[in-house]
């Protein structure tokens, strides 16, 4: 039983995360990003371009393993531009919604329509840490225990990072601190794994607090 001096700690807002895959060159990195996103419980995966990337589970093309393709729930944003599944209705456990866009601007228009802020992971002086991002979510005056915060995450290209256009379209930038000189930057799916794991940890803690 709580004493008069004690208070029940506030429950942090819920968080739903989408992963945007754009301008990633290597197929194995795309596969690793999809696998990591599914493992970390993202709500949706938004893929820009990549017309030859076969994700239909009924296809005999095994470029992307069947077990991954079976975990993706396609949503056709062109036929249903007002579809709000990626921002309001969580997918079944172990699955993620799949949205495909021909061009970067199409993806940005979709995110803007659904008021989903875009966070770019990049080495940049303006970038904040993942913990600072989570602190902002928890302390925002618009957020409370009944709020579901949505966030889209985009990783930079393997060689060049985020493009100028991508940087301009990001609502905020997130960085991963490095503590040695072994490499100039993390591999793209390693970086995604680190960020998504931290966000998933926040989601898990939130769920435990609600119980």
TrEMBL record:
Keyword Methyltransferase: yes
A Pfam family matched in the record: SpoU_methylase
Keywords attached to this entry: Methyltransferase, Transferase
Recorded superkingdom: Eukaryota
Any GO molecular function: RNA methyltransferase activity
Residues of the tRNA/rRNA methyltransferase SpoU type domain: 98-196
Any one GO BP annotation for this protein: methylation
Protein's name according to its UniProt entry: tRNA/rRNA methyltransferase SpoU type domain-containing protein
Organism, as annotated: Amphora coffeiformis
């Amino acid at each position: 039983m709580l004493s008069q001096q004690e208070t029940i700690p506030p429950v942090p807002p819920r968080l739903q995360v989408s992963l945007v895959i754009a301008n990633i060159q290597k197929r194995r990195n795309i596969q690793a990003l999809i696998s990591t996103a599914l493992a970390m419980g993202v709500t949706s995966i938004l893929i820009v371009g990549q017309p030859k990337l076969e994700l239909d589970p009924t296809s005999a093309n095994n470029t992307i393993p069947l077990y991954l393709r079976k975990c993706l729930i396609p949503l056709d944003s062109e036929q249903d531009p007002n579809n709000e599944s990626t921002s309001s209705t969580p997918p079944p456990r172990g699955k993620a919604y799949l949205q495909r866009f021909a061009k970067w601007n199409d993806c940005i228009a979709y995110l803007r329509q659904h008021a989903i802020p875009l966070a770019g992971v990049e080495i940049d002086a303006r970038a904040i840490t993942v913990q600072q991002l989570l602190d902002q979510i928890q302390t925002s005056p618009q957020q409370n225990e009944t709020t579901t915060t949505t966030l889209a995450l985009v990783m930079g290209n393997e060689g060049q990072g985020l493009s100028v256009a991508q940087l301009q379209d990001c609502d905020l930038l997130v960085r991963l601190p490095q503590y040695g000189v072994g490499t100039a930057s993390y591999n793209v799916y390693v970086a995604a794994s680190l960020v998504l794991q931290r966000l998933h940890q926040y989601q898990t803690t939130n769920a435990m607090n609600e119980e």
